[in-house]
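Module 6 notes. Inverse folding takes a fixed backbone as the condition and produces residue identities as the prediction. Think of it as a translation problem where the source language is geometry and the target language is the twenty amino acids. Below is one complete input and output pair. Work through it position by position during the lab.
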C-alpha cells in the first residue's frame, strides 16, 4: 500500500499565523506544514483518508487524489475534522454516502457540529449538493474490513480524551497520543511502518514530546518510523539530521510505500 502525508503540522500549522520565528520564515518547503492528515491507497486501489483537516481540498489537489472510499477519524478536534465539508466534491460526483469510521463519541461530535452531512432529513435545495456521510462506529480494539485491508482501532490517551490510532496491515498510524500504553504497544507491534506524533522538545499535557515519541517508537519497534504533527520548534533538516536511524520526520506531500 501507499501512504501520502497530506499534512504533518500541529493544530496551528507551520508557519503559524503571526509568528516571525526562523522556522516559520524558512524557505525549505518541508518547513511548511498544513494540519495533519493522510491518505492510504490500498493494493486494490481503494483510497482511505485519515482525518479531514481544514486544508483538505488543497491537500487532495496537491496529492492528485479525486476519489475517496472511506474516512477513518482519529478524534473530533478541529485540526483533524474541520475540512469535512470539502468531501462534498467527492460525494456529489459519485452520489454516494461516504463511510466514515470512528469512535462513537467522535462520530456523535461530528454529527452535532456538521448535522447537514449526516442527517438525510436535511436536504440540499434542488440543483445544489451537500457532502454525504455515513457514520460507522467502531469500538476500541475492534477490526473492520475496508476494501482489501483489515483496519484495527487502537485507543490511546490524548490529555482528557481518547484518540483512535489505526493499525492497517503493516502500517500503524498514531496521531495526538500523549503516551502509548502497553496494550496499545502490543496492538501496534509488528507494524513495519509507524507514523507517530511528536510535538515540542518539552513535555506537553496532551501530546508526546520529541523524546517521548522516540521512546514510544523504540517500544513499537517498526522498521521505519515517521514523525508527524510537528511544530515550528525545529527546522525539518535539523530534525532529520538529529534523529536516530530508522526515524524520519515526515513532510507534507511525502509518499511512501509500505
Ligand atoms: Zn514560528
Ligand atoms: Zn487533538
Ligand atoms: Zn491534532
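Target side of the pair, the amino acids:
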Amino acid at each position: 500500500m501507499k501512504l501520502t502525508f497530506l499534512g504533518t503540522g500541529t493544530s496551528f500549522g507551520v508557519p503559524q499565523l503571526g509568528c516571525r520565528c526562523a522556522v516559520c520564515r524558512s524557505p525549505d518547503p518541508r518547513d511548511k506544514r498544513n494540519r495533519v492528515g493522510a491518505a492510504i491507497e490500498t493494493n486494490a486501489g481503494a483510497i482511505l483518508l485519515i482525518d479531514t483537516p481544514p486544508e483538505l481540498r488543497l491537500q487532495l489537489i496537491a496529492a492528485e487524489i479525486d476519489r475517496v472510499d472511506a474516512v477513518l477519524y482519529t478524534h473530533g478536534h478541529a485540526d483533524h475534522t474541520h475540512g469535512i465539508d470539502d468531501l462534498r466534491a467527492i460525494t456529489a460526483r459519485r452520489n454516494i454516502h461516504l463511510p466514515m469510521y470512528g469512535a462513537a463519541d467522535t462520530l456523535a461530535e461530528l454529527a452535532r457540529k456538521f448535522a447537514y452531512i449526516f442527517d438525510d432529513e436535511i436536504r440540499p435545495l434542488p440543483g445544489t449538493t451537500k457532502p454525504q456521510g455515513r457514520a460507522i462506529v467502531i469500538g476500541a480494539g475492534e477490526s473492520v474490513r475496508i476494501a482489501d485491508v483489515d483496519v484495527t482501532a487502537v485507543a490511546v490517551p490524548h490529555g482528557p480524551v481518547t484518540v483512535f490510532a489505526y493499525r492497517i496491515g503493516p502500517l500503524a498510524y498514531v496521531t495526538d497520543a500523549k503516551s502509548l500504553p502497553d496494550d496499545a504497544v502490543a496492538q501496534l507491534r509488528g507494524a513495519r511502518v509507524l507514523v507517530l506524533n511528536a510535538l515540542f522538545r518539552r513535555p506537553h499535557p496532551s501530546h508526546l514530546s520529541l523524546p517521548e515519541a522516540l521512546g514510544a517508537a523504540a517500544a513499537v519497534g517498526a522498521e521505519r518510523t515517521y514523525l508527524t504533527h510537528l511544530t515550528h520548534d525545529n527546522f525539518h533538516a535539523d530534525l532529520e539530521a538529529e534523529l536516530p536511524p530508522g526515524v524520519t520526520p515526515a513532510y507534507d506531500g511525502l509518499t511512501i510505500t509500505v
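Reference fact for the lab report: Residues 230 and 238 are 13 Å apart (CA to CA).
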